[in-house]
Specification:
- It contains 7 helices and 9 strands; from the N terminus they run βαββαβαβαββββααα.
- It has 257 residues and is α/β, with parallel strands linked by helices.
- It has a single domain, classed as Class I glutamine amidotransferase (GATase) domain (Rossmann fold, 3-Layer(aba) Sandwich), CATH 3.40.50.
- Strands 2-1-3-4-9-8-7-5-6 form a 9-stranded mixed sheet, with helices on both faces.
- Helix 1 links the parallel strand 1 and strand 2.
- Helix 2 packs across helix 3.
- The chain is globular and about 45 Å long.
- The two termini are 19 Å apart.
Length: 257
């Protein structure tokens, strides 16, 4: 009889069990977008902690294989007094449990910053506010990383941020942009922070515009901020497909553990 691997969920010990993905959503307008499309296309199972609806976070990492922590207008320093539905400490603890249990973890924007914080790396403000679709450039380490070999040297992706994740001693910067030096960070071969938003679709962008239109009007002088008409005109399909391939490679690494 094969010895039980205590790092893997019991349901994966049986043949034919599907991958389980858990999403942490901070706001209704910071939706999973292409991540959810990928889950559905692959026939995986999705569960959600919609913290803006006061859903509870999982107590352990036993119920999922991949944890996806999405973005939000908060930052890791936001307190419960400032935002009663956002508990940064609890989310950092969940991320730590997932990493310790050797689950795959992907953080987007705020989620990427929370991963860094969970590993002891304080988030920072980005040199530029970026909102829209702009290119990222892969570093030499990024170009050499098999999970990103399909990105090419540059790739146009979505952005909607002010901050960026902190770096641990072992972290590797996979990609950067003119406005932000930390666009994609590898913390280990199963844990990745995406400051950029490769999950954006036209529907998600519309939600973000509706939530941010008043702010966008005040940012017409920013060189890396697009206005609603440009945001709506962008094509997000190619970056979505590139995200799908990355996720497939991440899952393959996870299942090989």
């Amino acid at each position: 009889m094969r010895k039980r691997d205590h790092h893997r969920p019991e349901y994966l010990e049986a043949e034919g069990k599907t991958l389980k993905v858990h999403f942490v959503m901070h706001e209704s307008f910071e939706a999973p977008g292409a991540f959810e499309d990928w889950v559905k296309a692959r026939g995986y199972q999705a569960t959600y902690s919609r913290v803006y609806q006061h859903d509870v976070l999982p107590d352990t990492a036993e119920s999922f294989d991949l944890l996806v922590v999405l973005g939000g207008p908060q930052d890791p320093a936001t307190t419960l007094e400032q935002c009663p539905h956002f508990n940064a400490l609890a989310e950092r603890e969940l991320i730590s449990k997932a990493i310790s249990a050797r689950r795959a973890v992907v953080g987007v924007c705020l989620g990427s910053q929370l991963i860094g914080e969970a590993l002891g790396a304080t988030f920072n403000h980005s040199p530029e506010k970026e909102i829209g679709k702009f290119p990222i450039c892969l570093t030499q380490e990024g170009l050499a990383n098999p999970k990103f070999s399909h990105f090419g040297e540059t790739l146009e992706v979505g952005h909607w941020h002010n901050d960026m994740p902190g770096l641990t001693l072992d972290a590797r910067i996979i990609a950067y942009s003119k406005g932000c030096p930390r666009q994609i960070v590898e913390y280990n071969h199963l844990v990745y922070g995406f400051q950029c938003h490769m999950e954006l679709t036209k529907d998600v962008v519309e939600l973000l515009i509706q939530a941010s239109e008043a702010e966008l009007i005040t940012l017409t002088d920013r060189r890396f901020v697009q206005q609603p008409a440009a945001l709506r005109a962008n094509d997000y399909d190619d970056m979505n497909q590139k995200l799908f391939v990355f996720l497939d490679k991440l899952v393959a690494d996870y299942q090989a553990e």
